[in-house]
Amino acid sequence: xxxxxxxxxxxxxxxxxxxxxxxxxxxxxxxxxxxxxxxxxxxxxxxxxxxxxxxxxxxxxxxxxxxxxxxxxxxxxxxxxxxxxxxxxxxxxxxxxxxxxxxxxxxxxxxxxxxxxxxxxxxxxxxxxxxxxxxxxxxxxxxxxxxxxxxxxxxxxxxxxxxxxxxxxxxxxxxxxxxxxxxxxxxxxxxxxxxxxxxxxxxxxxxxxxxxxxxxxxxxxxxxxxxxxxxxxxxxxxxxxxxxxxxxxxxxxxxxxxxxxxxxxxxxxxxxxxxxxxxxxxxxxxx
Length: 287
Prior knowledge:
It is a single chain. This protein has helices at 6-9, 26-32, 37-43, 51-59, 77-88, 98-105, 144-157, 174-180, 194-204, 242-245, 265-276; strands at residues 18-20, 45-49, 64-70, 92-96, 113-118, 134-139, 161-165, 189-192, 207-211, 217-218, 229-233, 250-253. It is α/β, with parallel strands linked by helices. The strands form 2 sheets. Strands 8-7-6-11-9-12-10 form a 7-stranded parallel β-sheet. It has a 5-stranded mixed β-sheet with strand order 1-4-3-5-2. Helix 4 (51-59) crosses helix 5 and helix 7 (144-157) runs parallel beside helix 8. The chain is elongated, with a radius of gyration of 21 Å. The chain starts with 5 loop residues before the first helix and ends in an 11-residue tail after the last helix.
């Protein structure tokens, strides 16, 4: 975790599990501190809960720093395999009491396994969209649940990445990672300023479709075939600023009835994503 505990990691690289029962343990304190964005930013790490998520992350090549499992999970074949992989990659393995696991996850009924991973962002310059690809761009998304659900939905729809534009919520917060249900490990996430995003949009030759309350085009009538598509979704409260709206190739609107004056951002993004990719999706999950 932090540099001052590097000495804790060294001896365990040969495959020794460290047993921890005290909440005062410095390594446990470091992991608990990952609930704070400041610590995540400083260490460039984050926490993911659940055996399936940890297995998926390791299979997808994410770098693991620390594996934590509850005493009750000891001896389970999948947990032993994950521990062996963690050791092989130079990580630390902790066996902890339920009390410690609850403190780490901030849950009364915690998952049996937690992994601490290195953060990973895809640089904007590395995004070179091809025909048939769809990206989601989010302007100043603030709600961790919305962001996590959008990452999960983008994964399910076969999108190629999520671009966070401007000052957004942290995609590696505990709440966001939980809401992704593991898709944070499968879906490339990129950060960009408004200026860099607009520059990239021109250079990449993408079709930018923005949802806008003043949009004149029914989202179902837009041609999503041919050029790669970027779906631009606005901030939960303010919507899309003029600077971004003017750069869009189409301003789309989702027709609504009833008294509600707006849709939840994650729901609206899901509607747009599956419409944009409808011509590419089949019932067997292939594209």
